[in-house]
Design brief:
By secondary structure, the protein is α+β, with helices and mostly antiparallel strands. It has a domain at about 5-65 and about 115-155 and about 170-200: tRNA wybutosine-synthesizing-like (SSo0622-like fold). It is about 45% helix and about 25% strand. It has five helices and nine strands, in the order H-H-E-E-E-H-E-E-H-E-E-E-E-H. The chain has a five-stranded antiparallel sheet, with helices on one face. Strand 8 and strand 9 (about 170) form a beta hairpin. The longest helix has about 30 residues, at about 5-35. The protein is elongated and about 60 Å long.
Length: about 200
């Protein structure tokens, strides 16, 4: 049975009202996180530029980070525990201090590039935003639907993850750790440059 024009317009109006309600909730949570100092300041300009549009709002964001963590051998999310994380360049001594807190499971050293989740008013808005982030060099991005919401996930491509220990024993030497830190800092610099470029495009 075909949906009447009036019914279709009613559904569309309800979708828009729900989008606006969800956006208000998301922005309220963002404001509270900033008041507590829990929001990532390096991505705040981009987040604000997106949220100013009537067609989009952000649900989560990270400018990129360097991580030392431990997890069980299956690397289950529920077992993942941060020992240290930084949103900018890091020095080797800070990484060594984080590794010093390692107790067991698998020890990981990671660089995680920028990630951003954006809720879009409709599929046309999502397509336009996806084209924008592609122009900014974020080719590992895509559109998906989550609980009726149309989302764009923006994701950098420069990440890496290295197992550095197991069962409480650290495998990496000081020299190799210095190499990993240098590599992560270099990738972080490039990641932040791409972030600034995306800010300008948006």
């Amino acid at each position: 049975m075909e949906i009447s024009l009036r019914a279709a317009l009613t559904l569309r109006r309800n979708d828009l009202l729900m989008f606006e309600k969800d956006k208000d909730i998301a922005l309220s949570k963002l404001l509270k996180a900033r008041d507590k100092g829990e929001a990532d300041a390096l991505v705040s300009n981009l987040v604000d530029a997106i949220n100013e549009s009537d067609s989009y709002y952000t649900t989560s964001s990270c400018s990129g980070r360097i991580v030392v963590a431990q997890a069980d051998v299956l690397n289950k999310k529920s077992s993942f525990s941060f020992l240290g994380k930084w949103h900018d360049a890091v020095v080797v001594s800070d990484v060594k201090d984080a590794i010093g807190r390692y107790e067991g499971g698998v020890l990981w050293f990671k660089f995680e590039p920028m990630i951003l989740h954006v809720c879009c008013k409709d599929i046309d808005s999502a397509s336009r935003f996806l084209e924008t982030v592609y122009r900014g060099g974020f080719k590992r991005s895509g559109v998906y639907q989550l609980k009726g919401k149309i989302m764009v996930e923006v994701h950098g491509t420069s990440g890496f993850s290295v197992p550095a220990g197991s069962s409480g024993e650290v495998f990496v030497s000081s020299e190799y750790l210095e190499f990993l830190v240098g590599l992560a800092n270099m990738k972080m610099e490039g990641n932040l440059e791409k972030l600034k470029m995306l800010e300008k495009i948006v």
